[in-house]
Amino acid sequence: MQQFDHDLTIMRTTLSEPEPVASSQAKPVAINGSASPKIVLATINAKYIHSSLGLRYLYANLKDLQPIAEIKEFVIQTWPIDIVEQILASKPTIVGFGVYIWNIVETTNVVSLLKVIAPEVKVVLGGPEVSYESEQQAIVQASDYVLTGEADISFYELCQDLINNNPPDNKILKSKPVDLKDLEMPYQYYSDEDLKNRLLYVEASRGCPFKCEFCLSSLDTKSNPYELTVFLKQMETLYQRGARNFKFIDRTFNLDINTSLQIMQFFLDRMSDDLYLHFEVVPDHLPRKLKEMLAQFPEGSLQFEVGIQTFNQEVQANISRKQNNAKSKQNLIWLKENTTAHIHADLIFGLPGETFGSFKDSFNQLYECHPHEIQMGILKRLKGSPIIRHTETFDLRFNPLPPFNILSTDRVDFATMQLVNRFARYWDMIGNSGRFKHSLGHILADDPFEHFMAITNWLFEETGQTHKINLKRLFELISQCVEALFPEIHQTLLPKIELDYTASRLKGAFNTLNLYGGQKKQSTSGSKLLQRQKQHMQ
Q1: Within 13 Å of residue 104, how many CA atoms lie on the same side as its CB?
Q2: Do β-strands 145-148 and 122-126 pair in parallel, antiparallel, or remain unpaired?
Q3: Residue 532 confidence (pLDDT)
Q4: Torsion-angle region of residue 47: left (phi > 0), alpha (psi -120 to 50) or beta?
Q5: pLDDT score recorded for residue 6
Q6: Rounded CA gap, 379 and 362, in Å?
Q7: Could you give phi then psi for residue 347, rounded to 5 degrees?
Q8: What is the pLDDT of residue 457?
Q9: Could you give the CA distance from residue 479 to residue 440 in angstroms, rounded to a whole number?
Q10: Which one of 33, 69, 168, 172 is separated from 238 by 20 to 30 angstroms, measured CA to CA?
Q11: Which of 222, 131, 225 has the alpha carbon at shortest distance from 175?
Q12: What secondary structure letter does DSSP report for 481?
């Protein structure tokens, strides 16, 4: 499953109301005494730039109920009580929430408040985080109904029942399998604001044939494609409306090469300076025809998310992951050397059977393939994923609170897990940011993992923090760290750090930075603790 970051402010999409769809269903009547039922579809996104494809699928398939429905999207930093206020401003009778691992805490708070302030409002939950192990979850206990599985059609059916005062007897309702041919496409419900400022999520297929046990997609039986001409017609409409940023959420975009080639050709024929495509690809499946196509795309137009997870064959067997490691590495190197695609490769720490040493080996092997980013994820216990079958055998201990990350295993103790967590955060700040591309390779030299682990330990001992480090301060710390850990290269490295600093376009000359450990920082005018008090005295 995808995993997301967090950012700022409220995101709301105002949808124009299309003409009511003709239906043989009964005309909506009162619910809880209200003569004018209203449906609000809501979710809490991780960032303002994100948009909810799931809510738009629900809206697209509401048929005759569309005119009384609207979508409201928020972001995690918004106070729950403010979210409730905005939801209730629409006077809803039904509110459907999309619940995911990244918003479960915030959505639980919103639902709890909503049911206190307006208990008459029917709250319906859906999404992967509530589709499994549902009964014991606090958010489920606070809600009225839960739709498990693909709810594109079952949400409409439930709303019909509620509006017509025919509520189901059960609280937890299992959605029937969806035939993609029966679904209305959601893409027309991306607003002009979405097209201009947000990522547009699209899917050419659903499901995944692979059985990697850490992923909920392992529960799928196969990958089901949309009818390609229908899908491409939707993409053409989006493109003509001005869409240039397409993020494909297909779990295995390059599974069917013929389909992949047709989609890539579609976008290549419409190439522009601002067109950007994001795909998740299988690393060991890049046949010649696809390579030839990829090599034609200009710089800045492609990003590939490549799931490696581990190169340890024993661990791969433990989690039912099939991967040709040699071919995967060859393809990563080929992509870096022969295309301009931005390559984002994933590793997961904490998998059953993985040791600190074997993970180090995977990191070093992947680093030698030179992807632009190495995303170091920590194993998370997604509800319903088969990874839990290893709990006793490998003594897997997960955080009971979101994001349900692994805390220790029989091979990795808690202290080591924390150490790798810090490594991952610093790596994202330093390695993945691209801000140190002239200097970092020289620092890591012939043992990338060990050298960066030494940097991790030094930085944490010096600062005590793994985030919110000022960028100018970070340049100072890197210089001081190299001086302390690798003094023999410090002087020769300073010009390369200066190149990185100049590229960052920070204000101030490089030679004014505190580049040596013995330098004193310039004093500030008084304690920050007293600044607020001083404001009242001026």
Answers
A1: 20
A2: parallel
A3: 60
A4: beta
A5: 31
A6: 15
A7: -125, 150
A8: 98
A9: 11
A10: 69
A11: 131
A12: H
- Give backbone dihedrals phi and psi of 164, rounded to 5 degrees, phi first: -95, 20
Q: Which amino acid is at 160?
A: Q
| Residue 291: Cβ-neighbour burial (10 angstroms; 0-12, 13-18, 19+) | middle
Query: CB neighbours (10 Å) of residue 65?
Result: 22
What is the three-class DSSP state of 279?
strand
pLDDT given for residue 220 in this prediction? 84
Q: Whose CA is closest to 305, among 435, 432, 452? A: 432
Supply 352's token pair. Answer: 């059953």
Alpha helices for 41-150 (secondary structure H): 53-60, 80-88, 104-117, 138-142
List CB contacts of 387: < 8 A, sequence separation 6 or more.
Answer: 213, 214, 319, 352, 379, 381, 396
Pairing of strands 205-206, 245-248: unpaired
Task: Answer for the pair 226, 204: CB distance below 8 angstroms, yes or no.
Answer: yes
Task: Kindly list the averaged pLDDT for each block of 10 residues, start to end, along the chain of length 538.
Answer: 32 31 39 74 96 97 98 97 98 98 97 98 97 94 97 98 96 95 97 94 94 91 92 98 96 92 97 96 93 96 97 98 96 96 98 98 98 97 95 97 96 98 98 97 96 98 95 98 97 97 96 85 52 63
pLDDT for 252 equals: 87
User: From CA 170, how far away is CA 501, in angstroms rounded?
Assistant: 61
- Residue 538 has a pLDDT of 62
**Tokens in use for 441?**
């390779």
